[in-house]
Amino acid sequence: MKNIPVVKMGIVAVSRDCFPITLSERRRRAVVEACKNKKIDIVEINTIIENEKDVLKALDELKVAGVNALVIYLGNFGPEGPETMLAQKFGSPVMFVAAAEETENDLIDGRGDAYCGMLNASYNIGLRKLRPYIPEYPVGTAEEVADMIAEFENVARIIIGLSRLKIIGFGPRPQDFLACNAPIKPLYDLGIEIMENSELDLFESFNNHKDDPRIESVAQDMAKELGSGNNFPKVLYKLAQYELTLQDWMEKHIGASEYVIFANKCWPAFQTQFGFVPCYVNSRFAARGIPISCEVDIYGALSEYIAACATCLPPTILDINNTVPKDMYENNKDKFAGYKHTDLFMGFHCGNTPISCMKSASMKYQLIMHRLLEPDKEPDITRGTLEGTIRPGEITIFRLQSTADCKLRSYVAEGEVIDVDPKSFGGIGVFAIKEMGRFYRYVLIEKRFPHHTAVAFDHAGKTLFAAMRMLGVEDIDFNRPAGMLYKNENPFK
């Protein structure tokens, strides 16, 4: 996926001037070697920070090397002022981590006291109002630190991506979808650019692509991807025209940003004017790391993008949609082992999930839109969905959302898609998340989250939670285990 950042990691060691500088140097080299053994690319910066002039030298080295994510490594106690100044002036994601003592046989000149130094570093991090990444237990051997760096890489990718992101929207939110109409001010607070356009702008650009010579090639690529699931071959040419419209708009309007996502109005006027539903095209963009949210859900698109950055996998956006019937639960008890009935729900959307994330998929028509726009007629303007069963496996549901008063809140919950036939329409799957019933009531409902959730096709809770902390999101919720009450949960069951 070309629309997500490539992280170039660097490591700078620090040393308190009353400790042997060679200790930090030796320990830094050991970390770099451990990273190499684990296939983690990292740039070793030669300058070791003892004072403020060293900070300037290291910054020059980092700039020349093109480093965009930095590990500040306390090889010994470290100088809390210069090391936090380095974090402040670097301007991109930073991680603090400290060296553990290696052996009982070298605790005189070989003792670094980095365990203690991290405490002073944390105080100075607060003074400078910094939000670096600090691992759960930020002290370790070279091998352990290398593992922490690998985790930081995923978090850093999110932070870098958002700092260079533009969200392009087309149209207002549909009527009675106020949940998608969230304030945009927090987007600017995160460093995200936004470009809002009319549906007419999109329609004009679409019409200008009517005779685009590239349409045939794109339509053929779609046909190849769909294979035997290509139920409406003739509509592919309109879909190809639309795909090229979005692609060209993105390239023309990316401006000073590096990455782009979309939030587009997709019904009901879309069908009557464009003559199709855009779902399949949305799925193809998501597969390239360019999420396109439905219903102008700006924060939904953003959440999808964050999920993609966290996993380097295509994401999707789904409605937290419907309950699993009790007979389906009873008839598949073996597959639902370990889950209560209230742990289950079906995730659904019209057909925007990438084909690689589907167990089976084919192009169909959008049944709900068909009921509304062309009842008692053969499907025409409602063709273009990608439907089928979402593939089983690990997932994480996630959303970052602005409240009406412009405060950011988020949730993260890990679970899985169960290999059970949902026996319904759309892009749909049976989802299982521990204590989902309580999470649904005391997070999704209690905190007024919208119906859309981003889905990462991996367990990415640790990464997403850490990234939200680095972004300054204070309200981050998760599916609390049984016995751990939510703030307003009734304790009397």
Please render the helix and strand layout as text.
Blueprint: E1 9-14, H1 21-37, E2 43-44, H2 52-65, E3 69-74, H3 80-90, E4 94-99, H4 114-127, E5 139-140, H5 142-163, E6 165-170, H6 185-189, E7 193-197, H7 199-208, H8 215-226, H9 236-253, E8 259-264, H10 269-274, H11 279-287, E9 292-293, H12 298-311, E10 316-322, H13 326-331, E11 344-349, E12 362-365, H14 367-373, E13 383-389, E14 393-402, E15 408-418, E16 427-432, H15 436-445, E17 452-456, H16 461-470, E18 475-478
Mean pLDDT: 96
Helix fraction bin: 25-40%
Gross geometry? globular
Order of strands in the sheet with most strands: 10-11-16-15-14-17
The total count of helices amounts to: 16
Would you kindly provide a written description of the structure presented here, covering whatever features stand out?
The protein is of the alpha/beta class and 493 residues long. It folds into two domains: 9-162, Rossmann fold; 164-478, no CATH class. Helix content is 38%, strand content 20%. It is built from 16 helices and 18 strands. It has helices at residues 21-37, 52-65, 80-90, 114-127, 142-163, 185-189, 199-208, 215-226, 236-253, 269-274, 279-287, 298-311, 326-331, 367-373, 436-445, 461-470, and strands at 9-14, 43-44, 69-74, 94-99, 139-140, 165-170, 193-197, 259-264, 292-293, 316-322, 344-349, 362-365, 383-389, 393-402, 408-418, 427-432, 452-456, 475-478. The strands form three sheets. The protein has a six-stranded antiparallel barrel with strand order 10-11-16-15-14-17. A hairpin with an 8-residue loop joins β15 (408-418) and β16. α3 crosses α4 (114-127), α5 (142-163) runs antiparallel to α12 (298-311) and α7 (199-208) packs across α9 (236-253). The radius of gyration is 25 Å and the shape is globular. The model has no long low-confidence stretch (mean pLDDT 96).
